[in-house]
Design brief:
By secondary structure, the chain is α+β, with helices and mostly antiparallel strands. It has helices spanning 34-43, 48-69, 73-79, 84-92; strands spanning 3-8, 11-18. Strands 1-2 form a two-stranded antiparallel sheet.
Length: 96
Amino acid sequence: MKFICIPLFSNPYFTCFSTNTKDKILEPQEFQSDEEHRESLMKYQINPNRAMFTIILSIFVDSLGYVMVMPLFPDLVLGIGASKILYGIILSSNAV
């Protein structure tokens, strides 16, 4: 069995993942109690706070990139000869 190991920034140790396709790392489950859910998270060594931080950080970085591009976007789109309707369609497509 082969593993891919990557270092984590906040942890001096490596986190390893199996590359064997027969291994199911996480499969959907329904839990009857909070205790079952905690045991499942501990089985895979998942810290809910760290997972939530990662999700929030990725949303923040995505929003920051969007905010940095938007002031320049009208000049770029209209500068290449696109109509205002096409500009509106491109701008609103981010919500989809």
